[in-house]
Design a protein that fits this description.
Layout (H helix, E strand, L loop, with lengths): L3 E5 L3 H24 L8 H29 L12 H9 L20 H26 L4 H4 L7 H25 L8 H8 L1 E5 L4 H6 L1
Length: 212
Amino acid sequence: MNASTRIYLYRRYERFWHWSQAVLVIFMLVTGFEIHGVYKNFGFQRAVEYHTLTAWALLTLWAFTIFWQFTTGEWRQYIPTLHRVLAMVRYYAYGIFVNAPHPFHKTPNKKHNPLQRLAYVALLAMVSPLIWGSGFFYLFYAYWQDLGLEGAIPLAWVAMAHTAGAFMMLTFFIVHVYLTTTGHTPLAHIKTMLTGWEEVEDEVPANKASAG
C-alpha cells in the first residue's frame, strides 16, 4: 500500500464559491428547462423570475470570485498547458480501469491536471459567452427596437443558442460529477471540497520503484 500525505488544498472561500456556484447552476438548469416546457414545477412565470434572479446572483458571485482569484494569485491555476495531456487522456481512457497510477499529483500550487485546465478554458471561452450572450439578448428583448436589433437577429436563433449552451453546461456538469468519483474512494474528492484537505499518494522515487 502506497504511503499518503494529507495536504490543505482548497481554502474556505474557494469551497464556498464552488458549492454556491454548483447550487446556482443546477437551479438555473432546472428553471431553464421548465421555461422550455420540458416539465412543470414552478410554473412558467415563476420559473422565468427565478431563472433571472439566479442569473444575477451567479454574476455577483463571479464578480467576487474573479476579484478573489486575482488578489490571491489563484487565477494561475487555470493557465492551460499541453504538458502531460496525452498521459491524462490515456489514464482516463484506460489506466483508471486497470488501477494504473495517476499521472498527475495535486499540490496547493497545481490543483488542476492539464485536461481540467483545458476544460475550464473551453468553459470560459466558449460555453459561458454563448450562454450569457444569448441570455442577455433574451432578457433585454424589449429593448431590441431601441438598439436597432429588431429584425436583425431572429429570436429563434437566440433561443437555440441559449439552449445549446445549456446542454453544453449540463454535459460539463455530468462529466464533472463523474470525475469526482474517480479518487481513491468514490467520495474522496467530494470530501476534499467540503473540508479542504486531501490525501495524495507519495511519489515513489524511480530507483526504489525499479528495485521493487
